Amino acid sequence: MRFFNIIFALTLTASAGAQGTVPATAPVDSSTAAGGQEGNLATVLPLGGGIEAPTQPQGVSTANYSRTARVRPISRTGGNYEAKIASPLSSLFRVRGVQENEVNGIGIVMGLDATGDSGLLAPQLLANSLLASNINIDPKLLATSSIATVHVKGVIPHGAKPGTRMDVIVSTLGDAESLYGGNLLITELMDIEGNNVYATASGSLTVGGFFAAGSAASTTKNHVTVGTLANAGRVQMGIDASVVNEHGYIYLDAKNGQGSFGNTVRATDAINRLYPETAQVLPDGKSVRFKVMDGVPGESVVAYLDSAMQLEVETDNLARVVISERTGVIVMGGNVRLRPGVIQHGSIIVTIAETPEVSQPAGFSNGVTTEVPRTNLNVVEGDAPLVLMGGATSLEEVVEVLNVLGATPRDMIAIMESLVSGGLLVADLKRM
């Protein structure tokens, strides 16, 4: 045993010497070693606390906010931004009773490569579907990772007959990671009340991306939890549609964004010039009632309507601002005006970086591994001066005045809302 202790001490000395230092070792206690039963390990360890503490993590997290250089707009001069544009009635009005119909259903996507749902919802739905075919299987026996519960949506065109094909959209309902490579089990699509089955859908999904993952990393291209099936839906029950009601009238309703009083009045006048005393404006100011003239046979009603829908009228250039904070889009109409005023718009940018570090104690120190929080907080407040805005009486001038502010699209959205609230921007504001 004494020989073993000497060899062990020499091994530690050689190991320390390889690192550039040769620590002194304590003499071996011969009395203890001679006993042959108990060896004192402390007698062969380097003096002065030779246990080296583990290296602590040195990584640092960052959170940065940057703003790209402003793109200087190209000046467009000479354009007639205030001119009224002639448009056919078909682009301004839709025929009442002729519209698409949305149908929905809940289905199951199969054949997924371990990217399906993790719960029991999908297996239970699949078990119910198999039970309809007299196949009774315990849902717990079905693999959840290869199936996913989805919502299926389709749109039936007006006048579609049984057998007509249509596209459908499939979206996950559970926690499935991807629908890539999946196949939709035949699904019934019903109306909003769920009383009638108007269509069915089944087939292979097209995701337009992919998802791949390992134990510690993953990569995704595009949105892989929503897929499409081109011409995979089949109409099972047609939906009746007629352009003429039982009293012999055709109703024209203004489309979104075109429902001005001027457009409705000019459309009515244009129809009456072609077919005298057949059209009139309804009290809501956004619809036209168009009577089918006596003597027009039933098979010629569509041609009669089409001749009226091809008439062109000058449309109103609406003073409207449409903004979308979600996408940062701003759209302005031609008759937007701007009153003189003063504006100041600053910005506050807050960046927070959490960088917790793990403190690992040295060996044999009876310490406890702990996580030490580290937070880096940075606040930057912009110092924006007051800006004097002159009045603008045309769309071109409005654009030039607003460009002077040099604000980002998202900042401009807040400015637009304040201008409308303060009465400086003469326009209707619509938020999307």
Structural features, described:
By secondary structure, this protein is of the alpha+beta class. It has four domains: 2-44, no CATH class; 101-235, no CATH class; 243-301, no CATH class; 320-431, no CATH class. Helices cover 19% and strands 29% of the residues. The protein contains seven helices and 25 strands. It has helices at residues 2-18, 30-35, 121-131, 261-274, 301-309, 395-405, 409-421; strands at residues 86-88, 93-95, 101-110, 148-156, 165-172, 183-190, 197-204, 210-213, 218-221, 226-235, 249-254, 279-281, 287-291, 312-314, 320-324, 329-332, 337-338, 341-343, 348-354, 357-359, 370-372, 375-381, 387-389, 425-426, 428-431. The strands form nine sheets. The protein has a six-stranded antiparallel beta barrel. The longest helix has 17 residues, at 2-18. It is flat. The N and C termini lie far apart (85 Å).
Give the structure's gist in a few sentences:
By secondary structure, the chain is an alpha+beta fold. Helices cover 19% and strands 29% of the residues.
Q: Mind telling me the C-alpha Rg?
A: 38 Å
- How many domains make up the coordinates? 4
The main sheet comes to:
6 strands, antiparallel, barrel
Question: pLDDT under 50 segments (min length 5)?
Answer: 3-47
Task: Write down how many β-strands occur, each being a DSSP E stretch of 2 or more residues.
Answer: 25
Number of helices: 7
Q: What proportion of the residues form beta strands (DSSP E)?
A: 25-35%
Q: Indicate the overall shape.
A: flat
Q: What is the mean predicted local confidence, pLDDT? A: 76
Return the structural class.
Answer: alpha+beta
The helix content is 10-25%
Distance between the termini: 85 Å
Spatial strand sequence of the major β-sheet? 3-4-5-10-7-6
